[in-house]
Design goal:
Blueprint (H helix, E strand, L loop, with lengths): L1 H20 L6 H17 L9 H21 L3 H18 L2 H17 L3 H15 L5 H19 L7 H15 L5 H17 L3 H15 L5
Helix pairs in contact: 1-2, 1-3, 2-3, 3-4, 3-5, 4-5, 5-6, 5-7, 6-7, 7-8, 7-9, 8-9, 9-10
Amino acid sequence: MNDILSTIHQLEAEIEAALESCEENEQFDQALDSYRQVEAKLLALELAPGEPGYQAQQGVLAYCLMRQANLLRIAGKKADALALGQREIAAARASGDDLALARSMINLGATLIASGELAQGLEFTEQARALFEKSDQPDYRQGLGWYWILRADLINLGYLPLAAREVIAAADQALEILLPLENFPGLARAYAARAEAHTTLNDLPAAEADRQAQERYDQPPSS
């Protein structure tokens, strides 16, 4: 049991290493190759439901598939991203982890929306929101913050027929959640969304203030 869990944790660490060294440096092909190698190693464990380590394996598999689906969506390979998203949801459910399931749902929802399946995509994002709201733990709160960022972005992009003030309201929700958690990427995205809404409303001083805030959080924190 301990050996299996140790192997699974090591594979999760390999995902994080590829995220930091490749994906965050926009070396997307290398990152995708690394994630696929980790996926193959996870599947090679050949664990069945009920076996020791199965749920942990499925949780890491869901995360691995999420990282792949994100990159495929960025590359415009929406059909491939959707197929992985469905597998990701199945793995997250098998893990028994509500947080993993919520993250998978919001990821698949975003992919569906980008593929033109707006109603189904929104259904998944709202299910994710409900799961994120079940706990005040930081990881759940961060997920909820990203839900509000996604909502703000969808309004700005015209997917949701709502006014610019609704973008500001959604971004404000994200900022309220993410500021205490010091989630710098999320804060930068929330300020960027709010700046765009202020520009739409011709409130240029507010837009400029938000852009400056975005730039601050786009920079890595000083050590």
